Amino acid sequence: xxxxxNILDIRKLDFNLCVVxxxxxxxxxxxxxxxxxxxxxxxxxxxxxxxxxxCGDSLFVRTNGGMEPTPRALAMVEQLESGVAHxxxxxxxxxxxxxxxxxxxxxxxxxxxxxLAIGPNLSRLVRExxxxxxxxxxxTNSHTVEQKLNDREIELAVVSGAASRAWITQEQxxxxxxxxxxxxxxxxxxxxxxxxxxxxxxHILVSFSGRSGIVDTALNAIGKQxxxxxxxxxxxxxxxxxxxxRAVVTLPSHAAAALSHMSQLTTCPAPLDLDQYPVQLxxxxxxxxxxxxxxxKHKIRIATEIAMKASTNVMGNCGFPPxxxxxxxEV
Length: 331
Fold this sequence. Notes:
alpha/beta, 5-stranded mixed beta sheet
């Protein structure tokens, strides 16, 4: 039978008293019980006094044969022995996790660029070992991640940028850069893009604010501007706006590689110095010893490595899908 414990009722109870009771039961002597517990005789006598006050019974009475249990003590001993043994087992039992048998759900925070690049491979990796494991991806960014972790809306997060809270653990699992994505048939411009061609093309902006981004900062530094004709808040919407359109969008290279892989769009290097940024894996510090969370962290590392390699490989060959690379080389 499950019982809910009222914390307010037991907050002043010292569970060490249970151990003292069992030592007195087995030794029938305050002196011997004190020696066994590595306590002074005075401390053991004081513990017995508190036990008596808590139970409203003498529990053990002095006789010529030693400390004899009262009927109340006789009635208590079996449950106390079982309870202490069970508590010890619970406290000492090592945490285990078997992905092949678990039905656990994991909530993982990511912005949709990471979800596009990392999510599919992560889902496949997890399913290989955990056929009944469920992944829940929640939209998260560097501005919201700390609150979501604090509220336990997510257990893990992949974000760009570091966390500032001491109760959050963070690990850099990659570096990300930027790339351009275009419909090569629609733009009628040679690739890779020059700065002048890049500026002349209309731009699609993906930005939380919908107003400006890192590209505008880099262009301003060299005295140039671009024309943004459409601003989006989600990377996943880019193909619907870009296919068949004379335009360019600048994205994190892992997102560009993922979108190119699932569409007829082409990636190429950005003609600006946009630097790189770290990709961080965040979790709550109190989950550090959880084997399930550590297993999931391992899978996220592998999926991220795959995504970062894919973005590097795509950029290495100018990002053309196979049929476009061949056609371009013939030209």
